[in-house]
Design goal:
By secondary structure, the chain is α+β, with helices and mostly antiparallel strands. Strands 1-4 form a two-stranded parallel ribbon. The protein has one domain. It is built from two helices and four strands. The protein binds zinc ion. The site of zinc ion (ZN) has 7 residues, from loops.
């Protein structure tokens, strides 16, 4: 088991998971909930995004969001959750 700081989530290996829309690498944008006694991130306690996501104030941001998020992300997030909970815990 590996441990990480909540503010510094592990890198998501691109040989295991890629963006379902464009095939780019994905990353954790946020880890916001984990079990206090074990450090295990809950299945809704993280957010994953594509590394091509523009900054929030970028003029292309809204268009990017519309084109980039769909139900295709759900199975990916589930697999990432399984991978995360098998390998990682939040350091406390
Ligand atoms: Zn993408």
């Amino acid at each position: 088991m590996k441990y990480f700081d909540q503010d510094e989530p592990p890198e998501i290996p691109s040989d295991l998971f890629v963006c379902p829309i464009c095939g780019a690498q994905v990353e954790f944008s946020e880890i916001n909930e984990y079990e206090a006694d074990t450090g295990k991130v809950t299945n809704t306690g993280f957010r994953v995004t594509c590394t091509t996501e523009p900054d929030f104030d970028d003029p292309d941001f809204n268009e990017w969001m519309l084109g980039h998020f769909s139900l295709d992300w759900m199975p990916l997030e589930m697999k990432i959750y399984q991978w995360l909970s098998m390998n990682y815990r939040v350091k406390q």
